[in-house]
Amino acid sequence: xxxxxxxxxxxxxxxxxxxxxxxxxxxxxxxxxxxxxxxxxxxxxxxxxxxxxxxxxxxxxxxxxxxxxxxxxxxxxxxxxxxxxxxxxxxxxxxxxxxxxxxxxxxxxxx
Length: 111
Ligand SMILES: [Zn+2]
Known about the structure:
The protein is of the alpha+beta class. The protein is 33% helix and 13% strand.
């Protein structure tokens, strides 16, 4: 599988597919993003179906990412996108975040 892409998550590590699968299984294919309840301030995980595995802390300046399980978690497409946008330094995404999150959670189900 030799494909090049500008996608930040394109992996050069041939073991990535296996690592990814293992993390998804560990996290029960549920998004591990910590959500704070608007009203109570209680924290809980998102829990939406996850199909992305993300690095909690990304390496800086082109160094290889830390692929150890403690640095990886499953995320739903929404939170993965949000985190990636945040990492890109798009502050304006932050401003829209609350509204979009409310919209997201009002969905009856994730397809
Ligand atoms: Zn999520």
